[in-house]
Every structure is written in structure tokens, then in C-alpha cells.
Design a protein that fits this description.
With 43 residues, the chain is an all-alpha fold. The protein has a domain at 19-43. The chain contains one helix and no strands. The radius of gyration is 17 Å and the shape is elongated. It starts with a helix and ends with a helix.
């Protein structure tokens, strides 16, 4: 039997995952550019 709090936390995790994947899709290009810059700086 799950308590209300456990259910809340599980639901919250799912929400965060959804938001994260949405954000990631939106910013994928920018992230790639940033990673490329970082690699260039390391050389």
C-alpha cells in the first residue's frame, strides 16, 4: 500500500522527466553547440 506522499513523489518524478525531455528537445541544438565549444577549448 502506497501512502499519499509516495504517490506524490512518484508523480512528481514523472513530471520532472517530462519537463526535462521537453527542455532537452528544445535546447538540443544549443547544447550541441556548447559541447562543441567546450571540446574546442580543451584542445
Amino acid at each position: 500500500r502506497r501512502t499519499y506522499f509516495q504517490n506524490y513523489r512518484i508523480g512528481h518524478k514523472e513530471q520532472l522527466k517530462k519537463i526535462a525531455s521537453k527542455w532537452y528537445r528544445k535546447n538540443r541544438k544549443r547544447i550541441k553547440e556548447r559541447d562543441a565549444k567546450r571540446k574546442a577549448n580543451l584542445k
